[in-house]
């Protein structure tokens, strides 16, 4: 059996991958990478190998990657430093002769710099290019926006105050991190995915008008959706005490949705799962206890 290494395993996506792997293969076949191994103690207790490694430290990645057949490479969450971190990962994977790298990239409609989230997309494009030029066997998983991010976008008071977001009429093919993680595990345990690129998304795209309608139906209240200018939105977040960096990021993602950057529904996730992904409606029902 192949030795599989999952990075980012203490986060929601990586954790979902590992839990699905444990349901379908022996713990001896699985390893996880953690900057702080103590945080992965639950996995170690289940027999999973815990390896210490940091994307910022190339030297720490080399021994962790030795003998690995399949690497599930979760993209870093440091937007500014992600490019250099990913260079370390790809370089170490080449040096350690990793058999196959599965990389969590991002869905996008445009690659010409016109997207409001170019600052996010750029590092992913760079990493994809590195993998393709590396000689490594790769699979690129272009993740659409997590349904799990909806509470952050619409706020925990949405049932009282409605949705205020500059996303216009744009739609998103949301899918949950749990379903994306399960799909990743199935790909890791399967075959025939060499040098493939997959859109990992819901099979239907929804606007925030649609989200408001779902919440209205679920709650029995009338939930409104207002799409202000991005400037007014960021100003309101700043007034509410949201740090400027976060306000900018949320505003940029909303603007990219208005640009239809994430209106990319696809049936690949359903095909990999062998079932329908969790619906946005069901996710909202659970997330807001409706």
Please characterize this protein's 3D structure.
The protein is of the alpha/beta class and 290 residues long. The protein has a domain at 4-144 and 176-200 and 265-278: NAD(P)-binding Rossmann-like Domain (Rossmann fold). The chain is 45% helix and 15% strand. It has 13 helices and 11 strands. The chain has helices spanning 12-24, 41-45, 58-65, 82-95, 118-134, 150-154, 158-161, 177-189, 208-219, 230-239, 244-258, 268-273, 280-287; strands at 4-6, 30-34, 49-52, 70-73, 100-106, 137-143, 163-164, 171-172, 196-200, 206-207, 225-226. The strands form 3 sheets. It has a 7-stranded parallel beta sheet with strand order 3-2-1-4-5-6-9, with helices on both faces. Helix 2 links the parallel strand 2 (30-34) and strand 3 (49-52). Helix 3 (58-65) runs parallel beside helix 4 and helix 9 crosses helix 13 (280-287). The radius of gyration is 19 Å and the shape is globular.
